[in-house]
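Archive entry: two folds, one per protein. Generate the first.
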Amino acid sequence: MLTRAAFYFLRHGETDWNKLRLMQGQTDTPLNPVGIFQAEAAAQILAKKNIVTICTSPLCRARNTAEIIAAHTSVTSIVNVDGLKESNFGSYEGHPSGPWRESWVAGGEIPGGELFEDFIERSLAALNECLKHPGPVLIVAHGGTFLAVRRWALEEAAVRTGNCELLALSPPRKGSKAPWKLKRVFTPEDVAKAAL
């Protein structure tokens, strides 16, 4: 079960592999210039949100996104949470997604990779570790990590997270079986629209 505490979730900024639609997994790809710009734009929004704790995946694309945000807020330290790492996609890292992914989600193995259910359980434990810290908490992680949020808070709703999209999540009232409330606070497209 996901700890019932409101938090913000931010997927890392764009990388070249995102642009090429390649599976990154735990390959430590850096932000590209667009990703850096996205993180700086998200930071301007987050500067107004009184974030107390930033928890991040240690993979550099997430860590660098978190560092850019911290530089624009009053947060003085960033907490690395190893369990927030993207799934290990084994031999499929560096390649496009394909039919193997549906099989993996259904319980199939991938060569040299992590089982889907193991990944979801690891991600849930990491999210709960983050939510032990003083809030509001910002979690900077990966699209795959958000699958655990979808399962444990959003009743598997088909919500996707783009690069540097900022989502606010709030639990339902105590005793309610309703899904959590989800609000898109910021997308990088907002900046492009404002520039028109």
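Generate the second and append.
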Amino acid sequence: MLTAGQLGIRVREAMRPPPPAVPATAAWRDLAAVLVRAPAAEVVLVDASGILAGLIAGADLTRRLAGGTAPDTPLSSLAAKPAALARPDEPLAQAVGRLHRTGARRLLVVDRDVRPAGLLDLADALALLSHPLPDLVGRFVQDGSPTSLQAVKAAQRDLVDMLMAEGGSAPAIQAVLTEINNDLHRRIVEAELEEMAIAGWGAPPVGLTMIIMGSGGRGENYLGPDQDNGFILDDYDDARHNAIDPFFIELAERVTQTLDRVGFPLCRGNVMATNPVWRKTLTQWQRQVNAWLRTRNAITVRLCDIFFDFRPVQGDPARADALRDFVTERLKDNHPFLAAMYENTAGHAVAVDRLGRFVTEKEDLSHRGHINLKYMGTVPLVETVRLAALKAGVAATSTLDRLAGLYDKGEIDFDEFDALQAAFGQITLVLLQRQLADAKAGEAVSNFVDPNTLTRRQRGELTDALAAIRRYRDRVRGDFTAPL
């Protein structure tokens, strides 16, 4: 069992020294001299201030060492931007989740000024955590029977209860819940593919990657998430569609029904691979995104709001990576569409007014006087950070990773970065506590919190968190509403 104490371990406790650093202006001959003195699996390029400029890693470095690269070749032409980074003070479990999502074995660790600070190896991280995440995830794989369904729900509730009692941070707990849930999706897809082969369907006619959207795509699951999933398929000739699509219709039906039995309710908005909108080849996905960007009506904007948080959970992640690169490029500085997305979210108020007073529910009599912390807390923050990240070309999907990306690009200063990180952590903590109390009482989990049940300190922290979100939304409003 992964304990809250283990969740409290920071990256700095597991990281190795950083790889050798060479100036970004150096040539291959300079790097070769460095490697003779200190052989390494990767090398980082830094600018004159020591800030990360690129990375030459793994097989590419080995290939170039063996391939006789010309001595005067600029290193800047050989380096790549790291797919993911870690920070010394972030929870180690959160960084492990990022390694799992990207399929990488190592993460470069950088400080807040993006200077190389260390190297995190997956084996080192799992050894320090003592109980690798896959072992934890395995406890939640059940056979789909009613008894197992109850066991899955009880296990997740008890896990959150233990971690919160030991002081685990809410975002780290969310990351663990998400890894458990997404691994369940992966195992169910693979089990259903085996069942279909036994039933005479054979192997998939083309390659498949399953993606998760919404909170699962952001790594921000609470208790009891529903389904938001889709398929990315390898391209095939349109003439073969009637021969190929039935296989994936059958797979989608089997997977979504099994997920429903295991405890992920069917999506009421039909955001599932059973819907052809969410089951497409890579090229079809690209065409659909282009159509959404051209149309910009309320329906397509809402679809994009769900879709833009996708990440792969089963199959070759390269298909999802290619789609992510396409989306990032098409949305960067796309003012007309981002303005349409902002307009769709502009009415989502934050649950504190300009005088610092809570804005509570008035229409729903059963929750009058309570705060809907999802729709008036995390949603306004998640939406605004998503928009800012898309505008800046930040490819990350989690809210905290997007904030880090915005800080790295200079879109927010450190004070705002720190305040918004703290706000996200505070609101998710209160929401998890509320949902845990509901689950223990045998009730449906809720997003409503009665501020009168909080201590004075908790009310003050929640007020500060909501006020930080309100200030951020007010500050960036002009970025999405002002005409170009």
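Annotation attached to the second fold: Residues 342-481 form one domain. Residues 209 and 232 are 5 Å apart (CA to CA).
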